[in-house]
TrEMBL record:
Residues 42-286 form the Phenylalanyl-tRNA synthetase domain. It comes from Streptomyces sp. 900105245. The keyword Lipid metabolism does not apply. This is Phenylalanyl-tRNA synthetase domain-containing protein. The keyword ATP-binding applies. Residues 18-39 are annotated as: Disordered. InterPro entries: aa-tRNA-synth_II/BPL/LPL, Phenylalanyl-tRNA_Synthase. Gene3D superfamilies: Bira Bifunctional Protein, Domain 2. Keywords: Aminoacyl-tRNA synthetase, ATP-binding, Ligase, Nucleotide-binding, Protein biosynthesis.
């Protein structure tokens, strides 16, 4: 009984204190109040803008999740890469313009800021050379020494999709590319696949999507063609696989995805520089 009495008294004390304080706040500042209440609980809170993740990070999460459902795991990679993995092992000719400092940023004589995520492919393939069946993705920023325009910026993001399996063939590369395009751009996206040569794949392909910024009329982003290249890759050559320590009968593929261009196609933006400029009038549209 004693406990019940004390609890009742405590409840009445707390209820009285709550009622008194509430009346005091609703009445506003008192005459004794000097107007410099450091807490200012009677003031209305100002609204603060809500932030959100950058659209590139959102797309990366979406893409990693898409490929995870197909059995691809995410591998870490470095933005600093040696020229051996950037060019030599990918059979890029010694006089190819992409090796020039006018195209690629050199940190040291033989170390560059990677100009594509394909430079990570052989590292991961070589790391697990005993495992003939592999599926992994590498994603992150790449860098090119270019004058920024609607199509190219000094920094952009790529995802590299890589698989090795004895039964892999070119139709699998095409299937992965078309399926991913449908997942991120919608099943009615106007996507086309065409042959394209790269030194480290044979055969190679590129995937284009119709330019939504100009409605296929031609603009700076699509370079007047009405189509925007969003992916490229193919079956890795036996020479490239040998560089990764793989036996010649290995079959492996690589597919590089240009993430900024996918976002441009998805949101009908006409310039990939929007994703580097941190203009909240643009970015706030995405969250
Ligand atoms: Zn266009």
């Amino acid at each position: 009984m004693e406990v019940a009495k004390e609890l009742k008294a405590a409840r009445e004390t707390l209820a009285r204190a709550y009622t008194d304080r509430r009346s005091q706040l609703e009445a506003g500042p008192s005459a004794e109040d000097d107007g410099h209440d450091p807490i200012g609980v009677a003031l209305l809170a100002g609204s603060r803008p809500r932030g959100g993740r950058h659209p590139i990070q959102e797309l990366i999460s979406e893409a990693v999740q898409h490929f995870a459902t197909l059995g691809f795991s995410l591998h870490e990679s470095s933005q600093l890469e040696d020229i051996e993995h950037s060019f030599d092992l990918l059979a890029v000719p010694p006089d190819h313009p992409t090796r020039s400092p006018a195209h690629t940023f050199y940190a040291e004589d033989d170390i560059v800021l990677r100009s594509h995520t394909t430079s990570s492919v052989l590292r991961v393939l070589a790391r697990e050379s005993t495992n003939r069946s592999q599926r992994f993705v590498v994603v992150g920023a790449c860098h090119r020494n270019t004058v920024p325009n609607a199509r190219f910026t000094t920094q952009f993001h790529q995802m590299e999709v890589v698989a090795s399996d004895p039964w892999l063939r070119m139709s699998d590369v095409k299937g992965l590319a078309v399926t991913f395009a449908a997942a991120v751009l919608g099943h009615d996206a106007d996507v086309r696949v065409r042959y394209k040569a790269f030194p480290y794949v044979l055969p190679g392909l590129a995937v284009d999507v119709s330019c939504s910024a100009c409605d296929v009329q031609g603009c700076g982003l699509c370079r007047g063609t009405g189509y925007l290249e969003i992916m490229s890759g193919g079956m890795l050559t036996s020479g490239t696989l040998a560089a990764a320590g793989r036996p010649p009968e290995t079959r492996a593929m690589a597919l590089a995805i240009s993430l900024e261009r996918i976002l441009c196609a998805r949101h009908a933006l006409d310039d990939i520089r929007h994703f580097l400029q941190n203009d909240l009038r643009v970015l706030s549209q995405f969250y």
